Amino acid sequence: MLKISNVTRRFGDKVAVDGVTLEIAKGQMVGIIGRSGAGKSTLLRMINRLTDVSEGTIACQGQAVSELNGPALRNWQRDCAMIFQQFNLVPRLDVITNVMLGRLNQRNTLMSMLNLFPRQDILRAIEILERLGIEEHGPKRAEALSGGQQQRVGIARALMQDPRIILADEPIASLDPMNAQVVMDTLRRIHDEDGRLVICNLHTLDTARRYCDRVIGMRAGKIVFDGRAEELTTAVAREIYGADADFSEEATSTSIETLSRPRGAATRRPELVD
Ligand SMILES: Nc1ncnc2c1ncn2[C@@H]1O[C@H](COP(=O)(O)OP(=O)(O)OP(=O)(O)O)[C@@H](O)[C@H]1O
């Protein structure tokens, strides 16, 4: 579905992403891990075209997305929704309006600024909020919600675009373990139930192992691991994080694991908890 060929991104002398080549098929939930500065965000931002490539190409189903402009670029950005660590909601607007802003690319901007939304958008937003179990917060200001609830509003806003791909850039990095679990459960559900491709930058190994089918490890802009979650051993993690023999996985853990399952129990595809 997504073909990334020899992609490099430079910022001045700094090479943030260095000759990355990847193919990602539909039907996978992909986690990208690596230490801070490894190039994870830059890679996601190039897929969405928030950042341009310096070299190489990114294509989706044969369309060269790294070369799109104008309306075709806007269509791509609608097809490829981003979710951010800091939620990027409008804090003083109510939740339902924040969700409907996901349609901004497809609707008249003035109408959206005046908060005039078609009835079908309002109904769709309510339906999505119900699906994510946060419909009762619809009338509240976004700033009144917990971090986990705000991130689910961010996911609802992304779903309003009806995207083929969801790119989540450290979606749980600002959340406590319980909220992190709810948000990751939600992303996994969207992947499983809707068949949308989900690519998620994660700081933590346990989350990648638990939720992702495929894990890509980045180090200094390059891909140093690409395999199934089960193959992500401590030795591999040490290589990705560039750590020495006393590397401890605890240092990259969110503690999600300890919340809801005994040690050694089956991983991934958990039930949604709220
Ligand atoms: N706009 C920019 N201008 C200059 N340098 C940048 C810019 N964006 C990223 N970089 C640099 O590129 C490198 C990769 O950054 P990036 O944010 O992609 O890493 P990351 O793995 O997502 O890290 P983190 O987990 O901390 O977000 C870093 O050295 C960063 O300082």
TrEMBL record:
Q: Kindly list the GO CC terms recorded for this protein.
A: membrane
Locate the region Disordered: 250-274
Q: Which InterPro entries match?
A: AAA+_ATPase (IPR003593), ABC_transporter-like_ATP-bd (IPR003439), ABC_transporter-like_CS (IPR017871), ABC_transpr_PhnC (IPR012693), MetN_ABC_transporter-like (IPR050086), P-loop_NTPase (IPR027417)
Outline the extent of the ABC transporter domain: 2-245
User: Do the record's keywords include Membrane?
Assistant: yes
Q: Pfam families from the xrefs? A: ABC_tran
GO molecular function (one) = ATP hydrolysis activity
Which keywords does UniProt give here? ATP-binding, Cell membrane, Membrane, Nucleotide-binding, Translocase, Transport
Protein family per UniProt: Belongs to the ABC transporter superfamily.
Protein name per the record? Phosphonate ABC transporter ATP-binding protein
> What organism is listed for this UniProt entry?
Devosia marina
